[in-house]
Each structure stands twice: as C-alpha cells, then as structure tokens.
Amino acid sequence: MKIENEPKLISPIQDFLEHLHQQCAANDDGDVATYIPELAKADPSWFGICIVTANGAVYEVGDTRQDFTIQSISKPFVYGLALEDNGRAATLERVGVEPTGDAFNSISLDPGTGRPRNPMINAGAIATAGLIAGKTPASRFKRILETFSLYAGRPLKVDHTVYLSESETGHRNRAIGHMLRNFDKLTGDPAPTTEIYFQQCSISVNCRDLGIMAATLANHGVNPLTGKQALRGEYVESVLSVMGTCGMYDYAGEWLYHVGIPAKSGVSGGVLAVLPGQLGIGVFSPRLDAHGNSVRGIRVCQELSRHLDLHLFNRPVAGKSTIRLRFTGADFNSSHVRTPEESRTLRELAKAINVYQLQGHLAFATMEPVVRDILEQAEATTYLILDLKRVLSLNESAGHLLHSLVGKLHGLEKTVLFTHSDHLPLLRRMMKKKLAGKYAELFTTFPDNDLALEWCEERLLENTRYARAANFRAKPADYLLFNNFSRGELELIQPLLQPRSFKRGQNIISAGTDAQEVFFLARGSVSVFLPGEGGRRLATFSPGMSFGEMAFIDGARRSADIVADTEVECHLLTLEDFQKFGKTHPALKIKLLEQLCLDLTGKLRKANRELTVFE
C-alpha cells in the first residue's frame, strides 16, 4: 500500500550528478566564444549534464533543455554518414585518420596527397561534407539533418541566425574549401559544400540530445530510446576511433590519458563522450579553455571517468546480465518450516522481500541497471537481499552505488542484506569507511540466502497474530499431525508419546542410523543438515512440528543429521509402539499415516513451487 507523502526515491546516480553539477558550477574559468558573433550571446552560467545508458536510462541535471548549436560535435556524425555512403576505402582517399595535435581550424593537409589529416579538424570535416550523397546541396543537407534527428530521437532544425553569422564570418573555412578543391579533395565548386558545413554546425540541439546521440553510438548505432538505427553498426568503431584520437584537437592526448573516453567538443560549449557498449555523456557549458573545449565539460568528464571507472582501458569484462535471478520471499521461502497459518501469512507478507542474485563484474555500467531495477521495485520492498555469490569482482564505482543504495533505502525504513560477500573485501572496506558509526547497523551480512530469508521472515511474522513467545511450549494437542484428531482419539495416542530433552548442539538424529521413531517438537527448534562437516541446512522446525517421519514411513536409514538449535523438549513415538497400536486401533493408524503423507506432500509442493523460480 502506498504511504501518503512518501518521499520520492531518487537514484544514487542522480544524486551524484546533482553533487557534481553543484561542484563544477562554481568554476568560472574560461570565456565564451566570440569569433562567431551569435555565439558570444550565450549566457556563461548555462550548465547541463546528461548521462544516457546503452539500454535507455536517462539521468540529467541543470540546463539540459537549453538549445545551442552543435558546432564541431557534428563532425563525427557526418563522418559516419560519409562512411555509409562511400565505404571506408573511398572515404580514406579523401580524409585521413591521423591526429594532428593542432587547433580545430588548422590547415593540416598531408604534404604528399593534400588529404586532410582527419575528419575532426575543419579541413577534414569540409572534405567529409563533400562526400555526402545527394543530387543537390539541399538534398545532401536534408539527409544530414534527418540522420542527426535519428541520433537525437526527435526532429532537429537549423538555427538560421547562427548559420548566417557563421557564413558571414567563415572566410577561413571558405579558403580551406578552395584549397581542398585545388587538391581534388572536393569536386566542383567548393562553395555549396562549405555552406553545408556551416549548416551542419548550426543545427540546434540541447544537452539531453547530446547524451542520447552519444548513447546511440554506444549502442552500436541504435538509438536506445527509439530503437531506430542511426548508423550501421559496422562503421561505429571507425567513428569512435577518430573521436578517441582526434576528437579533442590539441588536447586529445591528455584527454585519452586522463579521461579515456572517445569524445568530441564544440565551440558553443558542448562536449559529447561515448563509452562503447555502456553509455553516452552530454555536457553543455559555454565557457571555453585555450583549446576551445568547455572548461566545465572537461571537468565533468574527468570526474565521471574517475568516480565511475569509465576509462576505456579499465572496462569490465563483458558478460551476461548482471541480474542472474530476481524473486521475492513469497516465491522462495527459507528452510524454516512454518505452520500452515504462518505459511499462508508469509505468502502474502513475504512479497516485501526482494532477492537479487548478481553475477559477473560489478562496475558502474553493470550496476546502473541493477540499481534502477531495485529503485523501481522499492515501493513494494521492505527487505532487499543482494546475493553476491556469483560476482567475480567489484570496483569502487559499484561500491559507491551500493553504499548510496543502502543509505537511501534505510532512509525509507527499508533494510538491505548482503549474502555470500566474504570474497569481496573491497565492499566491506568501503562500507566500513563510508558508513562509519552506522556500519554495524546498516551493513548486514549473512553467509547464505537461506539464513537471510529466515531473518526477514521472522521480522515479518513478529507483528502478526501468529507470533510466538520465545519460550512457547506446544502440548500434544498443538502438534500439527494431530490437527484432525478428536479429543478422544488424542487421548488414545498420548500415552504412546515418550518425553525427551536435548541440549543445544546435541545430535537428535544421525545420518545412517536406523529409523526407530518419529519426533514431535514441544519446545525449542531443531535443524536438518546434510551429513558431513559444513553441511547445508535443509530445514528448521519449531514447536508443534514433527520430524524424522520419512525414514519412519519407509524403514530406510536416516539420510540427514538433525541437531538441536536450542534447549529442546520433544515427544517421540517409536516404530514398535506404532505397529502395536495399529493392531488395536487400525483406523487411527491409517489416519496418522494419512496425516504424515499430507504433511510430506505439502513440503513437496513447496519444493516444486520454489523450483519454478529457477526455470
């Protein structure tokens, strides 16, 4: 049931972006570009950050819907279209892929061929624009605009004011166009192609668009929000390669070293970065450094790379989905055998126990969908169990997300439990450092899911009418096997029940021994274990329940150890007395056997239901 005025649960990733935005907004270094008059009108305080994952999750903060012109960020997308139109070989004849270390507007041509060094500098971008197929300049640009719209997932348009401003002041670019024509890297009059270049730079986008366009490249050319193909997957690697080596101009080397994400910047203040297979980043802030890159954009990408371990050469090993299995406590119970009333109650209440079995390498990109899924289920969750048994490794970014998740859910009075976490010492160290005085309270661990489920179930039952006092003692009339027995029938059986007591830790039944009796638990609890050191718990019984009945029915040897968890009091019915009783009261013997069979079929149905969870 939804709680009135329940606080909205915000993702830890969103929290981090909010903090990063606030931190970087204080940096007023750099200046707005003025060499294109219209760009000088930008508000220096504009600042937006957007992260879009390859599976379509969008996180944004700040001025992410503020329009600006794409400028040089257009270059990799036009290059991709040129590759589709001409193929790699023909495109490489006109434009190279070698980094120059020069500024974006440098005139950098191969001295032997006159070929621009790469498509990320203006000379290469103008040559690339000349490779776009179409009968007229208008149809060629129309294809560029439609392709950009596919990347962004919405119709884009040109800012004509900026376009006219670029065209009126673009004398250097026109000179580059004529130079390219001189070396036959452009065919025909270079003026229309140069105008196409001015137009592509003047396409209006916002920071959110940049994030989605970057995520489309991260998603092998498919827009993760619309599912539409913007670039054939075979050419994505070529686009990302030139972005990685040439996208940040004379800052490209330092960028790759420190940030390690293929990227492209623009003089309007945009930065677009792509982590293949994982996510795209869009940042917008007009203040530029000496290289022509957004000051805040650079800082944001540095912090994202460092904090979220996004460096291209520190990628997690690709594998299956991080969520191996998800189920609730209503789908799969602990081994603690419950009374029918408790079982019915837990089938409803235990829906509030959510269990996630995780696998593989935990990093930002692999944990983000897990955190998102958990938060989507949070309203219906009281207890969250994270099973880490199949997790191979965990890095700091995943640790940060898990710490934030624990704190966030705790603030909503929800509890997170970890199982099978001993092989991940980094998680324990990070939790101890970050939780500090709350470490013992908030970092709850169990060696396996069974014990964690039992812990949650006990707390769910605490406030129900089925909750029992710790010293509860069952009488023979309370034993579940005698539920349908009349008072007179119970009086006939009761003399056969022999009292026994056991100390905590004492073996009540040992595997391999003959089955000579069935036990009825009056006080305390007992657990069933597979034989051998470190045996796995199969079940735990509480007062009113019976145990040892399987071998009692079929006469086979005991197959498991049963140990007293506490001081135990019980009654036992021996096989010899049962057989004698059957001769004098055959109807009651049959009735008791029927009850034993019903009890076993109930346990079998529970096991079958739980097996379906793993299908």
What does this structure look like?
This protein has 615 residues and is of the alpha+beta class. 41% of the residues lie in helices and 17% in strands. Helix 14 (396-411) links the parallel strand 11 and strand 12 (415-419). Helix 3 (122-129) packs across helix 6 (171-182), helix 5 (160-169) packs across helix 7 and helix 14 (396-411) packs across helix 15 (425-435). The chain has three domains: 29-314, Beta-lactamase, CATH 3.40.710; 323-462, 2-Layer Sandwich (Transcription Regulator spoIIAA), CATH 3.30.750.24; 476-614, Jelly Rolls (Sandwich).
Q: Strand count, sense and closure of the main sheet?
A: 5 strands, antiparallel
Return Rg in Å: 35 Å
Helix segment tally: 21
CATH-level-2 architecture of the largest domain: 3-Layer(aba) Sandwich
User: Which range best describes the helical content: under 10%, 10-25%, 25-40%, 40-55%, 55-70% or over 70%?
Assistant: 40-55%
Separation of the first and last Cα atoms: 30 Å
CATH class membership of the largest domain? Alpha Beta
- Number of folding domains? 3
Lateral strand order in the biggest sheet = 2-1-8-7-6
The CATH homologous superfamily of the largest domain is termed DD-peptidase/beta-lactamase superfamily
Average pLDDT over all residues: 90
Give the strand content.
15-25%
How is the CATH topology of the largest domain named? Beta-lactamase
Give the overall form: elongated
The helix/strand class is: alpha+beta
